[in-house]
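Re: beginner question about structure tokens

> Can someone show what the tokenized structure looks like for a real chain? I only ever see the sequence side.

Sure, here's an example I had lying around. Input first:
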Amino acid sequence: STARPRILMRRAVLIVSVAMTTVADDPGNVPWVDSPTLTTIWQSVSDGALDGLLVMAVQSSEQDSFVHQRAGDGRGPLWWAYEFKRPQAHALFTHLGASEDMKDKDGLRPQDVFPGGKQELETFLAESRAFVEALPSVLEQTKATIAQHEADVNARFHDDSDPDESDGVELLDEEDDEDEEDEDEKADPESSLSPEIQAKIAALKAKAKELKDEI
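And the corresponding structure tokens:
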């Protein structure tokens, strides 16, 4: 029968079409899986913590940008920017290449989850576009801040591992004091004895002196 080969061919075409759509909607064909990184991104977006997102942006490689990662439900950073109405986060994610045409497991695009009306959405997108213009300088400033922080940490580590001259003098003074105490103990062995024993020794010495005087 020629009907069966035609059905199989149609199924093959459908499978290829779905696969091509998935790749197109999912840059890099990133697997949909929950991860600690996505949890951190979600928390930063929901809290409006832009600084944390900027740090992640400058530390992510272009090939493995965090904006392309997808959670188990198929959603990712761009969905959350819409969901929590964070225009600056939206600007950052789209600037880094996040696509507006991606779909989650329910077929919803990022913009579909925006909780406001049409007018509010237009305002949201306008604020995002305005921030995109400032992003290059903001990202450069973030890089400079991170570099300065790393330099400060390295400098403190170097100072801690290489004590200065004053620290060495204090250490020598402590050693000299300990040596003097040792010498005192050698000169007067009784000084290391308990007060009770020292008192008994003193009494015996006094008694011995009395006997010597009588003789």
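Each token stands for a local structural state, so reading them left to right follows the chain. The helical segments are 3-25, 36-47, 50-59, 77-83, 87-95, 118-161, 165-187, 195-214.
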